[in-house]
Fold this sequence. Notes:
single chain; Double Stranded RNA Binding Domain; 8-stranded parallel barrel; 38% helix
Amino acid sequence: MPSRRIQIFDTTLRDGNQTAGINFSAEDKKRIADRLAEFEIDWIEGGWPGASPKDDQFFELMRDRQWTHSKLVAFGSTARPRHATDADRGLLRLAESGADAACIFGKSWDRHVTVALGISLENNLELVRESVRFLKQHLPTVFFDAEHFFDGYSANPDYALAVLSAARDGGADGLILCDTNGGSIPYRIAEVTTEVLRQFPGLTIGIHAHNDSELAVANSIAAARVGATQVQGTINGIGERCGNANLVSIIPTLQLKMGLDCGVTPERMKQLSSLSSFVNEMANRLPWRHQPYVGLNAFSHKGGIHVSAIAKSSDLYEHIPPEVVGNVQRVLVSDQAGRSNVLFKAGDLAGTDDLDPNDPAVAHAVARIKELEAQGYAYEGADASFQLLLLKAMNRFRHFFELEGFRVLDQKQGHEGEVQSEATVMVRVGQGFSHTAALGNGPVNAIDQALRAALLPYYPQLENMRLSDYKVRVLTTTAATQAAVRVLIESTDGVRKWGTVGVSTNIIDASYQALVDAIEYKLLIDQAAPPATAG
Length: 535
C-alpha cells in the first residue's frame, strides 16, 4: 500500500524573510526559489505582491520560470473590511502576480475579529468566503491560512470552524491551520487537527506552526501523523520571532522515520545538507553546528566509548546514516578522547592510516592531546594540527623549516592615527637562510606576509595558500589582559581547507603557532620536494 503523500509548502522567502537580521534581495529570492525548485519542493511561497517593491520585482523576475514540478505561491490577506472584494487592491495584485497559486490569511479567532479588525463576526466570514471566491476565478489553486486557528478554536471552536467553512464554501483547495503565536503543544495540535479532518473530508488540511515554544517541528509532525496532508515551514526554521517549523528536520523525519511520502527521492534527500547551507549563505548566517540532520556536529562523536562503538557499527550511536541527508560522520579529538578516537581519526589521514593499535605512539598521542587540551588547545576544528601532532608522536614528521626568530613592531602616532605593523622573520631551510621583513594589516598579517616571503623561494607552492578564517577566544576571562588565548585558523589553497590551532598568553605567539602548522600541513599534503636552493 503506497504511503500517504504529504505536500511540502515552503515559506522561506516570505515568513523566513521576516527574520530579524535577514533581508533577501529580489535576486537572492530568485536564486533560493530556483534552488528549492531543484529540490522539487511542492509549493514555494515567494512573498506578498504589493507589500514592497522588492516583492513586486521578485514576481516579475519569476514570470519566465521553467520549473518542472514546483508551484509558485503568492501570499496575501483577505479583502480589507468595508471594501468591495472585486476592487480590493491586495486581491487584484495576487490575481495579477503570475503565480500558480495564492495563499491568503484570515482571522479565525473571534477576539482578533472584533478587537484587531473591529468588525462583526459575520462580516469576517463574508470577507473570507468572498475573497477566496474572487481568487478562484483567477488562479487554479487557493489556500486559506486560518490565522491563530488553535487559539481561536480553544476560545470559540464553533466560530473557528465556521471560518474554515466559509473558506471551503468560497472554493478553497486547502485549509491551513496556523499556530500563529507558537504556543500550542503537540497533543492539542493532534486533537484539533483530527476534529478538522473529520468535519472537512476531501480537502487538503495543512499545518503552519511557529516555534515560540520550541515545538514547531513536533507540532507539525503531530498534525501530519493524524492526517494533515500539507506541512508549511522554512529552510533552517528561520522566521519571525523564534522562527517557523524547520523543513530540514520535518522532511527526513516524516519520510525516513514515519514512512510518509514527501516527494523527495533518495538522491534529492542527499542534497538536504547542501540546501540548508545554501540558504544560510544567502541569508548571511553562520550555520548552526548542532542542527539536527544537517549540522556539522549532527554526526560528530567525541567520547571514547562512543567512538569505539561506531567503529564496530555506526548505528550504535547514529539514528540514521549521515550520508542519507548529505552529511558526514566526524570523530573529534579532545581531552575526552581515548585510543579509539586516535585510531579512528588516524584511519582518515594520509601518513597515519597504517597506525598499529598497539603502537606506543597511540598512547603517547592520547597523553599529549590531554596535556595540550588542559592548556587550552582544541583539536575539534583543527584536524591539520592534530595530524601533525600524531605524526610527531610517531616520529614521522620533519619540519620543513626552522625559525631563527621573528620580531613585530607596531607604531601609532596620535589618537586618530593608523597603526602600522611590521614583522621581521629569520628562517633556515635546509642549508639556506632567509631574512625578510613585511608590512601588514595588523601584527598577525605582517608575520604571515613576512613568513611567506621568506619561504616562497624554497616552496613556491605556498603562493596559492591563504587564510580563509581567523578566530580568537580568551580562555580565562578572570585573568583579564593576562589571559591565555586560543587562535583557530582556517586555511585554503583553493581546493582544500584545513584548520590549525595555537595557544599562548601572547596572541602573536598563538597566531604564529597556528600559522606555522597551517604552512607545514600545506607542504605535507603537497608532499613537498626537498628544499630548493634560493637564489
